[in-house]
Amino acid sequence: MFSNLLINFVLALGAVRVASAALTRRVACPDGVHTATNAACCALFPLVDKLESDFFDGGECGEEVHESLRLTFHDAIGFSFTKGGGGADGSIMVFEDTEVAFHANREHIIQIISFDMGLISLTEGIDEIVDAQKTFMQENNVTISPGDFIQLAGAVGVSNCPGAPRLDFLMGRPLPRAPSPDLLVPEPFDTVPTILARFADAGFSPAEVVALLASHTIAAADHVDPTIPGTPFDSTPGIFDTQLFIEVQLRGTVFPGTSGNQGEVMSALHGEMRLQSDHLLARDSATNCEWQSFAGNQAKLQTAFKAAMHKLALVGQNVNDMIDCSEVIPVPRPLVGQPHLPAGQTKTDIEQACATAPFPVFAADPGPATSVAPVPPS
C-alpha cells in the first residue's frame, strides 16, 4: 500500500515537472540570436535595439528617457472609476489633438522658485515627446499598438539609468476607442488631498503615489530657459537612486501662494528645482513616513517603483489578454554611488516630518556647497 502511494506520488511529481518545463520552454527567434518564452515577443528585440541606438542616443539616461517615462504616466493616469477613460491605451497619441490640449498636457506657464534663478516660468508640454514617438513609429514601421509602444519605450528608457529596476512589459493593448476625459492628470500645484484623491480614483494608494514619484529622481525641467538645457529635481538626474527623497527633505523656502496656490518652494541647492507637490507630499502626515522610508533604501525603492509602474502600465487593461514580454527589457546597470547629503549640508538641514521614525543619518559630500549641473539636451 505504502509503495503504491509512493509510486503514484513520484509519477505525479514527474508530471508536474514535465508540465512546468513545457510552460517555460523557450523558442528560438528568427534572428538566430534571441530566444523567448513566447514567439510573439521575438519581434520586439530588434525594436528595442532600434530604440536604444536611435531614440535613446545609444543608451543614455537623458532627456528622451525623462520624457518617455513622463508620457507613460500622462497616458495611463487618464482613467477614472467615476469619469471613464481607457488608461494605458495610447489615447494620448491616437487622439493627440484632443489630449495634448488638456490643461496638464499642453504647453502652459507655471511658476516655480529655484535657488539661484528666483521665480521662473516653466513651460510644460507633452506634445514634443508624443510627436517624437509617433515619428519613430512611422519611420520604423512599428506594428505594435500605440499603447504598447508608449509603455515599451518607457521601460526601455528607464533601463538606461543605473540603479533602476528592470521594469515589466506586457504586450497586447488594443487601440483606444476614445480620448481620455480632461482634468485627470495631477499637477504640481495641486494640494495633497487633491493629488491623493485623483490617484485613489484610478486605484492607487498613497504609498503607491510616493513610489511612482521616484520617477522624479531621473527627471528634469527641460524648457526653463533657452540657455539652461535642463534643471534636475535632484543632484543625480542620470542615476535612479534615493537622492530625491533626501534632498526634498532639506529645508527650503516656501513663498506665500496667490490665486489659490499653496505657495512656491525654493530648493535648498543651486541648480536644482523642487516641485511643490514633492515638497508637500514629503511633509504631509498621509505620506511623509512613506517618503522618508525611501531615503537611502535603494532596494525598497526599486521594488516599490517596479510594482507601482507595473500597475500603472496595466490601468484600464485586461491582463488576461496580454503577453508577458518583460524579457525584452534590458537589465539596468547597478547603482553608482552611495546615499549622501549634498556638500555643505548637515543633519540639521533636514526638515523632520515623519513622527514615528527619525530621518536616517547620511554623511555629506566633502567640500563647500556646489551647484547641481544641468542636464544636457539630447
Question: How would you summarize the topology of this molecule?
Answer:
Layout: H1 2-24, E1 27-28, E2 35-36, H2 44-55, H3 63-76, H4 91-94, H5 96-99, E3 108-114, E4 118-124, H6 127-139, H7 146-158, E5 170-171, H8 192-200, H9 206-212, E6 220-221, E7 231-232, H10 243-247, E8 253-256, E9 263-266, H11 276-281, H12 288-293, H13 298-313, E10 323-324
Antiparallel strand pairs: 1-2, 3-4, 5-10, 6-7, 8-9
Give a quick set of tags describing it.
378 residues; Peroxidase, domain 1; two-stranded antiparallel sheet; two-stranded antiparallel ribbon; 13 helices; 35% helix; globular; calcium; Haem_peroxidase; oxidoreductase; secreted; signal
What would your notes on this structure say?
Residues 1-21 form the signal peptide. The structure is a single chain. The chain is an alpha+beta fold and 378 residues long. The protein has a single domain (41-349), classed as Peroxidase, domain 1 (Orthogonal Bundle), CATH 1.10.520.10. The protein is built from 13 helices and 10 strands. It has helices spanning 2-24, 44-55, 63-76, 91-94, 96-99, 127-139, 146-158, 192-200, 206-212, 243-247, 276-281, 288-293, 298-313; strands at 27-28, 35-36, 108-114, 118-124, 170-171, 220-221, 231-232, 253-256, 263-266, 323-324. The strands form 5 sheets. It has a two-stranded antiparallel ribbon with strand order 1-2. The chain has a two-stranded antiparallel ribbon with strand order 3-4. α3 crosses α7 (146-158) and α9 packs across α13 (298-313). It starts with a helix and ends in a 54-residue tail after the last strand.
